Amino acid sequence: VLQVIKYESVIHEFDPYFNYRVTQFLSKNGIYDFWNWFDDRTWYPLGRVIGGTVYPGLTLTAGTIWKVVNSLNIPLSVETVCVFTAPIFSAFASWAAYLLTKEVKGPGAGLTAAALLAMVPSYISRSVAGSYDNEAVAIFALVFTFYLYIKTLNTGSLFYATLNALAYFYMVCSWGGYTFIINLIPMHVLLCIVTGRYSSRLYIAYAPLVVLGTLLASLVPVVGFNAVLTSEHFASFLVFIIIHVVALAYYIKGILSPKMFKVAVTLVVSAGLAVCCAVIAILIAVVASSPTKGWSGRSLTLLDPTYASKYIPIIASVSEHQPPTWPSYFMDINVLAFLVPAGIIACFMPLTDSSSFVILYIVTSVYFSGVMVRLMLVLAPAACILSGIALSEAFNVLTRSIKFQLPGIAGNPSIASEENGSSTVVAPNDIPKTEEAAKEKPAKKNRKKEKENVEKKPTPSKTEKRLLVLPLEASVIAVLLLVLLGAFYVVHCVWAAAEAYSAPSIVLTSHSNDGGLHVFDDFREAYSWLSHNTDVDDKVASWWDYGYQTTAMANRTVLVDNNTWNNTHIATVGTAMSSPEKQAWEIFHSLDVKYVLVVFGGVVGYPSDDINKFLWMVRIGGGVFPHIKEPDYLRDGQYRIDAQATPTMLNCLMYKLSYFRFVETDGKGFDRVRRTEIGKKHFKLTHFEEVFTTHHWMVRIYKLKPQRNRIRGKTKKSKSSRSVSSKRDVRGKRNPWH
Fold first, then answer.
1. DSSP calls for 518-557
2. Does the keyword Ribosomal protein apply (predicted)?
3. pLDDT tens for residues 631-679?
4. What pLDDT does residue 649 have?
5. pLDDT of residue 707
6. Given CB 3.0 to 4.6 Å as the disulfide criterion, which of 18, 69, 426, 650 pairs with 74?
């Protein structure tokens, strides 16, 4: 909510603008039109079928909330509901974390984990007001699905198993990260089977999830038959077969004699191996027919972190898909990084089915977060759960130590007397009620013997308790240090929420040396200009990062956007940006483009501009069009825009559109992002004309000049000119203006 207080009620980032636009369409036209919506404003001239290519969970959730509050005569706009959906579900996620941790280690650990998750910066980055992205509701669905799985595992209730399948269905509707669930739970089931922890509760927790969950997942249009055809789901089916073989073995063991059981096991194992081999052979045959072996590009990137950089540059170009640095862990989870190992140790004392699941959760999430910085979001709940367990166990030991050593504490006279070196005496009230009931009317001759036994029985338990008692001074200091550690965590989380993650990327701010605040609202200024000064049917070309915002805020047709489903179309735009001005004009003209939008940060020092992204345009374009080669834009392997830059770089369209008239800003052409003077300062545009540049030069819009007219029969050419033109025709050069 700090974002709304500091700025205004505005949508963040890029993807949320598409979600907001879809939610507007849903609230205005209804669910049936939403499923059948063909959007002709995106991916021109191809278009996009929205209902079959979007995860509808977030949109349907916000649309339902909007309809409910308006039916209660609470006049909230769709934008307001979209802005506050993420904070609402962050509270639900904390509640789900409490329930999950409570099932593992009790309510104390659950409350601690919920408090940690409510403040962890990694989750705040996706749950601040305005962060209207799929992860806003998906993290709640993820943690709640895990809770229901553990609840079913602990109780063996078919009711909770059904709820688990429904929660998994909501997760499938919300985010493509549902594959993490359908692979983590089978891994845990297989771990329990291998370690001899199979039980009927495990079967009830897993089998309905696979059957009902897969059937429900196939109902989501964007998933469909991928729920049974892609490799991401095969692990669940393989474990489903294994658990039925194990269940059959346990059933046969209960009705047969040991000798007959050995014979039956031999038959079952033989038949099971034959079936498994047949199924695996079929799966291999199906998978081998796919060039990616049935895995999506993002899944292959998780398994092989170098895959995207080698084969799919469009995935590698996304900043969220880059590996995180070590400082990002301390920024996003802070002190939890040090508490997680202690939580893992606590889960082994004792090791249960639920605690082993939490250990497996943290291990896998740490690996995946190390591959993609985006998946730090999956690590955050696991780190909070383990840290909550660690803190709860530590406080239990420390507070118990203080309690048993402070004099005058009621109910502890035995401890006080033992500290003073006197004999141990146990009050009658300390005897368990079951023993009192059994000894209400003992025989007189046995009373003396029983009295001696009663006095001796508590001694071992007191010895065990004393082993867990730490010195009083050390316990007090440790409690104070833990409280201080929590205080530092709270301060860091508040700072991260207020400064690092509350600033919307569409509205930027900076502070001057005298403390003044400067607001850079260039993005909305540019989109407003497009909306008011261009025709409704005009096509706008830009890099795919700005497609969603252009469509949602300017209501103009774009060539590519953040969905990135068509690599060839994106490569075409990248090739145009990498080509000389004349060739770029031909490419854009063939696509009916009228305006070209570029983002430039050289004046104000905005680092996420198109010049810094340009090499990715070259790589993606070169992946489809071989004449675009990255070395042509590098000088001795270095990316330069100064006087040492290559001629190919200095003459490409992106360079010219970014640095046109740039020398007029300071007379030298000094780029504040690259910290150097540009190489080519004075040049003119022949095929494009500048129509708008925002106040801080962050967004620049150019218009394609019209095609030159050829007037036949109006002018007479000399014989020499005719002979020259005929020679050029013989050489095979054509007029590009035809």
1. EEE-HHHHHHHHHHHHS-TT-EEE--GGGHHHIIIII--E
2. no
3. 999 998 899 999 999 999 999 999 999 999 999 888 888 999 999 999 8
4. 94
5. 81
6. 69
Predicted confidence (pLDDT) at residue 311 exceeds the cutoff of 70 = no
More confident residue, 718 or 165: 165
| Residue pLDDT, tens place only, 676-711 | 999 888 899 999 999 999 999 999 999 999 887 665
> CA dist 595 to 241, 589, 651, Å?
57, 10, 20
CA dist., res. 37 & res. 655, Å (int): 38
Comparing 223 with 446, the larger pLDDT belongs to 223
C-beta of residue 261 within 8 angstroms of C-beta of residue 225: no
Which ranges of 543-631 would DSSP assign to H, the alpha helix? 547-549, 567-578, 581-590, 610-624
551 in Cβ contact with 558 (< 8 Å)? yes
pLDDT in tens, 89-130: 999 999 999 999 999 999 999 999 999 999 999 999 888 888
- Spatial contact of 175 and 217, defined as CB atoms under 8 Å apart: no
Q: What is the overall mean pLDDT for the chain?
A: 83
Residue position matching structure tokens 């705040």 = 124
Contact present, 349 and 391 (Cβ < 8 Å) = no
- Give the pairing type, strands 676-677 and 670-671: antiparallel
Instruction: Tell me 580's DSSP state.
Output: B
Please report how many Cα atoms fall inside a 13 Å half-sphere around the Cα of residue 175, on the Cβ side: 24
Determine the pLDDT at residue 647.
93
Tell me how many degrees the CA angle 547-553-554 measures, rounded to the nearest 5. 80
Type of residue at 240: F
The string of DSSP letters for 82-99 reads HHHHHHHHHHHHHHHHHH
CB 523 within 8 A of CB 698: yes
Return d(Cα 169, Cα 166) in angstroms, integer. 5
Q: Is 710 exposed, middle or buried (0-12, 13-18, 19+ CB in 10 A)?
A: exposed
CA–CA dist 320, 318 (Å, integer): 5
Tokens 């605040």 map to which residue?
517
CB 546 within 8 A of CB 596: no
Q: Given a cut of 50, is residue 447 above it in pLDDT? A: no
Residues 6 or more apart in contact with residue 719 via CB below 8 angstroms: none
Question: Encoding tokens for residue 562?
Answer: 């953040």
